[in-house]
Amino acid sequence: MSGPRYSIIHGEAATDPRLKGKALQVLCMLGRHTDRGGWCSRSQVKMAEQLQCARSTVQAAIAILVECGYVQQQERFHPNNGKRSHEYRVLLDDKRPAEFINSLDDYDDDEDDVTIDPASPHAGIPASPMPPQNRHGDAGPEPASNRTIPSNNDLEREARAPLGSGSEIRRKLDAGAERAALAEVARADEAFMSQFRQWPKQDTDNIVRSHGSWLRLSAADRVAASAAVPVFIAKLRIDRAHCRFFTFIEERKWLDLASKTGGVSPAGVPLPIEPGTDLWWAVFWRRWKAGERVKFMFEQAFPLGGQARQGIGVSANAVPKQDEVAALVTIAVRDAAGNQTAEFHAWADRMAQDSLFRFNANDLRMPFIKVPSQWPSDLAQTVTRAG
Where is this region: Disordered (predicted)? Predict the structure, then answer.
């Protein structure tokens, strides 16, 4: 590719306070790879590597850009290999300086490295208000609208519509201002915010949609949903899953939770944690440091012979949070030669002092485990043992 590279995005994005986190950077990266129609195919994995962040961060940024009306996202199915990929359209102003557009552009594969078909489904779809043309700059027939972004109401449709000119731009900006005002109303609703603040990644969630869904609940449903929030969040941590707050409300997830657990109280029916997982080790070491006997818990998780492994059940408010899990250290059980590592040997000796003689490489059958510190001696002053 020859010539200088520009990032072609809408100018309002530079000062839009709604673009939090990596949203503006992701928009700029997409803007570097658009064709004349505003479309590009850019791997989320590659963008995450360039921005030195997790792919989930890029996905959250794209969700914000779609919601704010700067990007249109479309899924493509490739019949030749059965894979799916995503393409993005950077929505632009009514004028695009021709000198900023390269006539030839390269296309990156999406996250599953799918080759883009020469006959793109976007052929003939213009970037408003450019004349119809395909990716290679050739004129094409006038297409039907390709906007497939779902909208719940007129306000969202206005906010997500591409910017045009004159009164269209003003309506777009007014819609953004109205959404900002609705967000302030949501933040002033303490009953709503007391639940919303608990939600994982709530800083990238749709507070306006969440608040609207919350207001549509009956008083009884709000009470039931509020009681289920900490339990549902704990289960998300156990399942390593993610769910937006408005999805929890609109799909009435607390009802599914009640049918599976039999209750939604944070101190109610225990939630199961699989043996040997990071959460299991966090609970194991928490109990050990508190002086509780953990021999039975260990032997259930790592039984002799061909017996089934058993996890533990903990109440929702006792499920380890991310900071507790992150504080643990990963050590190898064996080295490359198949011998026990020095760190694991030290921990095995330490656990033998508590009569946990089966804390050994043969019974664990795991290549790595989580421990409170690399060496047991590092905890000598902090651990209190039961007499």
Answer: 102-167
